[in-house]
Write a structure and sequence with these properties.
Number of helices: 15
Distance between the termini: 42 Å
Structural class: alpha+beta
Helix content: 25-40%
Shape: globular
Order of helices and strands: HEHHHHHHEEEEHEHEHEEEEHHHHEEH
Largest sheet: 10 strands, mixed
């Protein structure tokens, strides 16, 4: 193979000496700091997002200029661009491309946004919540997955203030802080938020879960009848009613089993002599079992994990380092019929949901509680969910997905975080001009930025 000749540059062509500071001027030059935001403009147009948001607020009489649907779109764009505080709107309100993205000549000020959030009601929240779910389901219908894995778990949003609907509850990171403890439904194949159940911070993880699950499975099952539905849950959801619900809807599920509620499980583990091998560190056995009050038995998988305990105290370094080997035990209940290995891999894949929570909180503002009113905070949470989902939808339309399903049910695409997309091509300076009446966005020449930006634009045009 031929080697590409290396071009050598002289020292004078690379190094430069600058001493004089340039004079600073502030003029209207139609410059934008978010040249790559044009991809979101194309995505909003493809989804007809503004018109669909407007339908969510038809029952409200808002401002004739800044209707509530435009305020919600401003909040979604605000989070997509990487801002968190509402007051940060002042730092890009004169950006011409952001104005075009929102269909405005002038962006609303913070007081207008706050008043609009205050004027919204619970009916508005429910309609925007339904729209958020509908956008995700439309993507699932387009992709035609053979299996859909819907995971359920709660996540804490803490605040230092006394926002309406917050309460002091279980909070490992900020003990004693008031919080919301929302229950989320996420789709493992797309890494998106399917739905949310808003709750105060002092409720159990399973509070309101069964009705929420029933509604979720009804909608997904009706929209994607060809797909086999699956679900993974932690020990907080382990009860007879939840497992019966899964059987009723034909959902293949796994759930962690809490040891403290069933001492007989400990006895079964202690009396077990033969364990089957999963890998070098994990062993298992399985049994059809049920608590005494349950009418039917289920498949229980008992897993023993070899761990090395830390040795405390002085060591004789000239001899050898002793190792203490111990075991951690876990029990998983399931109605799946596959091998124990595939079932356990499937259950352990639920850790991907924690990654979705972490990315949405860090890069899409899912942890924000900006107002004192419950409805306003619920609307901001929905905007954060939609911002995260739109970032995933953009990449789903532009990239091919995996054609096979793996045991842990990872996402079918290799997703980049919103923050990565911002640094790569969204936060790029550009200039809007109209040579011969043709609106043109001019960016500095960079092959990587040009490749990424045009790739997303072409993909959105083909998908339209």
């Amino acid at each position: 193979s031929r080697r590409t000749p290396q071009v050598k540059f002289s020292k004078q062509t690379i190094l430069a000496r600058f001493h004089k500071l340039p004079e600073i001027r502030f003029e209207d030059q139609q410059l934008t700091s978010f040249g790559g935001a044009i991809v979101f403009m194309a995505l909003f147009q493809r989804l007809d997002l503004l018109a669909r948001l407007k339908q969510c607020f038809q029952h409200l009489k808002g401002s004739p200029i800044f209707g509530p649907h435009r305020i919600v779109l401003v909040l979604i764009a605000h989070l997509l661009l990487g801002f968190r505080r509402l007051r940060d709107v002042d730092y890009y309100r004169d950006d011409p491309l952001v104005q075009r993205l929102l269909g405005l000549h002038r962006l609303p000020d913070v007081a207008t946004i706050s008043r609009a959030l205050t004027a919204m009601d619970q009916r508005s929240v429910e309609r925007v919540r339904q729209l958020c779910s509908t956008l995700v389901i439309e993507g699932l219908q387009r992709e035609q997955f053979a299996r859909l894995t819907v995971d359920f778990d709660g996540s804490v949003n803490s605040t230092q203030g006394h926002a309406e609907g917050t309460a002091v509850g279980y909070n490992t990171k900020k003990k004693g802080a008031r919080s919301y403890y929302n229950l989320y439904a996420t789709v493992a194949q797309t890494g998106q938020f399917l739905d949310v159940l808003h709750r105060s911070g002092n409720v159990h993880d399973s509070n309101g879960a069964r009705a929420f699950m029933m509604d979720t499975f009804d909608r997904v099952g009706a929209a994607c009848p060809q797909a086999v539905l699956e679900s993974r849950m932690d020990s907080a959801f382990f009860n007879q009613q939840t497992l019966t619900l899964m059987d009723l809807y034909g959902v293949e599920c796994t759930a962690s089993v809490p040891f403290e509620r069933f001492p007989v499980l400990k006895q079964m583990i202690e009396s077990r002599r033969r364990w089957r091998r999963l890998d070098d560190e994990r062993f298992y056995f399985e049994s059809d079992w049920k608590p005494k009050s349950w009418p039917a038995t289920y498949r229980f998988l008992f897993v023993r994990h070899t761990v090395r305990r830390q040795v405390k105290g002085p060591l004789q370094l000239d001899l050898f380092e002793p190792r203490e080997v111990d075991y951690d035990y876990r029990v998983v209940v399931t109605n799946k019929m596959g091998s124990a290995r595939s079932v356990l891999l499937f259950h352990h894949g639920r850790g991907s949901q924690e990654r979705i929570f972490a990315e949405a909180k860090q890069h899409a503002g899912l942890d924000l509680i900006p107002t004192r009113r419950l409805v306003g905070n619920q609307m901001v949470t929905l905007c954060a969910m939609m911002a995260h989902n739109l970032g995933r939808e953009l990449q789903m339309l532009a990239q091919p997905r995996a054609t096979y399903s793996r045991a842990k049910r990872p996402a079918a695409w290799v997703f980049q975080t919103l923050d990565t997309l911002r640094h790569r091509f969204i936060q790029r300076a550009g200039r809007l001009t109209q040579p011969q009446g043709n609106l043109t966005l001019t960016l500095t020449p960079n092959p990587m930025v040009e490749n990424d930006l045009l790739h997303f634009i072409d993909a959105l045009h083909k998908a339209a």
